[in-house]
């Protein structure tokens, strides 16, 4: 006769398995079980045989202690003493008491004369079939058979009705930020399905279309697991002057012809800060990009730069004196052709 699962009630301290005292309340047992089940669940420990075994032990302990009747019976069995064992017994010969002797008083019956029942649960109980079990205990042990299945992890070893804690659902939300708010971080208030607002501080330097996960702020679990998350999508409004290039900021800087030709020092705006002076070298062509270090977007990784692209602006209305000056400049630079070689380069391609 097999001596496996029945001896568990004598050999295993289910209270110790769950880390609770023998007078623990139902709530304390439930809380301890959920915590351990999450820790040792096979999905969280793929390929870990030790964690798998621990997960089964936790489930077995919870299955017994979470039920009032089975807990009372377990406590009575434990009170008999840890030295008791299940054995085949020879019907009273020579004082070698068998399985029925051990449980006859506990479950009320006729000791060795009791009719035995063979109970073989299907699927993944603890060690397969239980072998010969007295009728009084068959129904109780039936709770440990059947092979539970959860999340693709079959044959987990305790009761077909077992359902480990599952994470609650996620909540999707979105918010609109100004360009400056996105760069500097901002507090936004989200309206949750339960009607309660949720205040969130967005990260510094968040980008347009970026998704932010707020752990534990989603829907509650249906069976005591961890709550879901809030997935917040950020939409950033365009800025009239700046555009973003990674952690750098870009802008076009209008300059006059004389500033580009002769060189100059001009004021350049920064995002939400004081203007800075930028030197325009003499002879700067339109389209050249100048770099102002440390004036970009500040993030955890560092601060980007401000990239200033020069754009030479031709005057629309010239006074008589200005027109005469431009004509004099034209005459003085007739030998210079800004398009020299352009046609030849075009033909060569």
Outline the fold blueprint:
Layout lengths: L7 H4 L2 H5 L7 H15 L8 H17 L2 H12 L19 H9 L9 E3 L11 E3 L1 H7 L7 E2 L2 E2 L16 E7 L1 H6 L2 E5 L5 E5 L9 E4 L15 E7 L6 E3 L2 E9 H6 L1 E7 L2 E8 L8 E4 L5 E2 L2 E2 L2 E8 L6 H13 L9 H7 L1
Parallel strand pairs: 5-9, 11-17
Antiparallel strand pairs: 1-2, 3-4, 6-7, 8-9, 10-11, 12-13, 14-17, 15-16
Helix pairs in contact: 3-4
Pfam families: DnaJ, DnaJ_C
Protein name: Molecular chaperone DnaJ
GO molecular function, one term: zinc ion binding
Describe this structure in words.
There is one protein chain. With 349 residues, the chain is α+β, with helices and mostly antiparallel strands. Among the domains are: 8-76, Helix Hairpins; 169-234, HSP40/DNAj peptide-binding domain (Sandwich); 240-310, Sandwich (HSP40/DNAj peptide-binding domain). It is 29% helix and 23% strand. The strands form 7 sheets. The chain has a 4-stranded mixed sheet. Strand 3 and strand 4 (153-154) form a beta hairpin. The relative contact order is 0.08.
Q: Summary?
A:
The protein has eleven helices and 17 strands.
Quick one: overall form?
A: rod-shaped
- Binned, the helix content reads 25-40%
Mean pLDDT: 78
- What is the CATH C level class of one domain, in words? Mainly Beta
Q: Numbering strands along the chain, what is their spatial order in the largest sheet?
A: 10-11-17-14
CATH superfamily of one domain: Urease metallochaperone UreE, N-terminal domain
What fold name stands as the CATH topology of one domain?
HSP40/DNAj peptide-binding domain
Radius of gyration: 40 Å
E-strand count: 17
CATH architecture of one domain: Sandwich
Number of helices: 11
Uncertain segments are 1-6, 82-102, 107-160
Alpha-beta content class: alpha+beta
Largest sheet: 4 strands, mixed
- Give the SSE string: HHHHHHEEHEEEHEEEEEEHEEEEEEHH
As a percent range, the share of strand residues is 15-25%
N-to-C CA distance: 93 Å
